Amino acid sequence: MTATLRRAESPTPRTAPPAPRARGLSLKRRDALAAYGFLTPWFLGLFFITIGPILASLYFSFTDYSLLGDPQWVGLDNYREMIGDPRLHSSLLVTFQYVFVSVPLQLGLALALAMILDRGVRGLPLYRSVYYLPSLLGASVAIAVLWRQIFGANGLINQVLGYFGIEGAGWVSHPDYALGTLIVLNVWTFGAPMVIFLAGLRQIPAMYYEAASVDGAGPVRRFFSVTIPLLTPIIFFNLVLQMINAFQTFTQAFIVSSGSGGPSDSTLFYTLYLYQQGFGSFEMGYASALAWLLLVVIGAFTVLNFVAARYWVFYGD
Amino acid sequence: MRSESPRGPRGRYRAHRGAIAPVAAVAALIVMASGCGGGDDGTVELRFSWWGPDGRHQITQEVIDLFEEKHPEITIEGDYTDWDSYWDRLATSSSANDAPDVIQHDEQYLRDYAGRDALLNLDEYSDQLDVSEVDELVRGTGELEGGRYAVPSGVNAFVIIADPQAFEEAGVEMPDDSSWTWQDYVDIAAEVSEESDGELVGAQNNSFNTAGFEIFARQNGESLYTEDGELGFSPSTMERWWDYTVQLQEEDAEPSPAESIERDADGPDRSVLATNDGAMAGFWTNQVGDLANTADRELEILRFPGETEFENPGTFFKPAMHWTVSADTEHPEEAATFVDFLVNDPEAAELMLADRGIPVNTGVREQIYDDLPEADAKGADFLSEIEDDVLPADPPPPQGAGEVVDIVKRINEDVLYGENTPEEAANRFVEEAEAAIED
């Protein structure tokens, strides 16, 4: 910020005679100053609420910090401890399962719905909004509480199953099903990628389809040879975004398991474990180290995505 | 576009002012935000935090109003939430040096805070805070190394609460709590489930927390924690305890694992007693009033099974909660005055009654006895009835005991689902709990 200011300032020495050209520059400078003035709140937020805490957590990750006492420097101990931490390993496993199952399912559903809506359904804006709604609500506490009730041992789902004589399981309280229930919850929030897919589908020129039809391509062929290739940039965008989101899932697991990650750690998401370490066990140093590991993991997968994208994303040139 | 700008030095000045205005506005906001909460008119403002159900929030507000009436120079701002979020909030606000002045605390977290110098040593404020009338059985519970950091709010005991109507519906006789064994408990619970054709369950699962086990360990001449803050029991004792859980599950005396987990997480208001779905559950005596209200039934308090089975009776008096003062408070004297009011004022006790346990001030306890609602009076009677049999309470749990709360929950889930045998569970508990309290 200061560097830019100085650069704007330097061509016009303070004592410079008011030549027409210099006056123009000083106006420019005024505008720049005003712009930075109005940006100040954002800069304050950036430095104090984002960058400051990020750097603080990097420092804490090398300390033993109990949250109530002062941090003690321990070097790489926290990172070494991760190697032999079974709950960390199981939380990574849970998170990977969640990401790699729920994201493809969610994108698949989003694309399918977008294709249907793209065929020109009457009342499209209404449908678009209705399907988008879960994306807005999905990560909220209220919905998680609701799901807990619906999928409870005596909840709505099991009552309906009961009418058909099927004995339902404890969808949120059995270790074999709890993660699946959360995956369903995530898939249900397909609205955001769907809206983006819909916009992408609208971008595909109709002439390609017409040309393909003339050449005798059926709907399936048209889908795989026209729609998919031209949609790959959008698919890629959604994939990266949803993967990063899924890695950071917290609220749903926190509410549905009452913060325990249970039953039997089956919904112990990475972020939930991080939270437990920091605020439950007062191991803020270790929790900070966990946060940095998460950053590395997400970063690695994002880089991997971009590298892989070279081989399957088609930008039409 | 820029033509409206005046020329010359004046123009430049204007532009500067334009740039500075938003900065100044933000600065002003920050100053305002950090500056509020001060008492310019000579009054002292204290923040007071507690957890609890809705009923407690109302009662506590009335207590605050009464205090402010008697001490016009002090105003109190209430800060309340439910149990789960309470500890997250307290931990974050404490680390930000923004802890409430007066804090309702729990035994399991007491050493975590006192040991890290987050609580005020109340010995230094004995002019304001008088603890001479506090019941001797629990007076020591707020004393940690080097001083008094907490005053108990009331006395509690962990008990079996039973629903006589459920027993009647199942056609099973109420147990005789003066002599029943743990095996009797399992058998009776199984009988209720069976006789009611599954309409009712005998008991709610009781091994999600350590209170029941603590009684069991004391009955066997052991304890959950020792004076030195280590584990005070042998793994085989805990194995036997979890063995009863397995038996209760096998005989359908308890709800299914899934339902047990959900009922535990949903708290007393969704317990089998509250929803009239079961006959027995383990709770603290101060919870019986709320339970009876939710259940809309008369409930009975029973002694834990096994009190005459082994070496000792195991039931113990526990301080229901503790009053503490933050070490960061700017007004320690006023905070101590408020704690004194909470502990010793008869009118405050008349409002709170048994909600935070039977009052620890023995004089006050006598005074409010006649005002207690029926269920709470039963609790008070029960406590005075067992008083002679009870051995002194164990010392406050060590640092890290808050983590044990989660550990036992996790292991119990695995026991319910058969992932861990009682033996595995006991060894796992010892291993994980030791790691937690050694940190």
UniProtKB/TrEMBL annotation, chain A:
> Which residue ranges does the record annotate as region Disordered?
1-23
Q: Name one GO biological process term.
A: transmembrane transport
- Any idea which UniProt keywords this protein has? Cell membrane, Membrane, Transmembrane, Transmembrane helix, Transport
GO CC annotations?
plasma membrane
Q: Origin, by domain of life?
A: Bacteria
Major location (coarse): membrane
Q: Which residues form the ABC transmembrane type-1 domain?
A: 92-305
Which residues span the membrane? Answer: 33-60, 96-117, 129-147, 177-201, 222-244, 289-313
What is the recorded membrane topology of this protein? Multi-pass membrane protein
> InterPro entries attached here?
ABC_transporter_permease, MetI-like, MetI-like_sf
Q: Sorted alphabetically, which PROSITE patterns does this protein's record hold?
A: ABC_TM1
The family note in this entry says:
Belongs to the binding-protein-dependent transport system permease family.
Indicate what this protein is called per its UniProt record. Sugar ABC transporter permease
TrEMBL record, chain B:
| Chain residue ranges for the region called Disordered | 249-269
| A family per Pfam | SBP_bac_1
Q: Where is the composition biased (Basic and acidic residues)?
A: 260-269
Q: What highest taxon heads this organism's lineage? A: Bacteria
**The protein's name:** Extracellular solute-binding protein
**Organism in which the protein naturally occurs:** Halostreptopolyspora alba
**Which taxonomic lineage is given here?**
Bacteria, Bacillati, Actinomycetota, Actinomycetes, Streptosporangiales
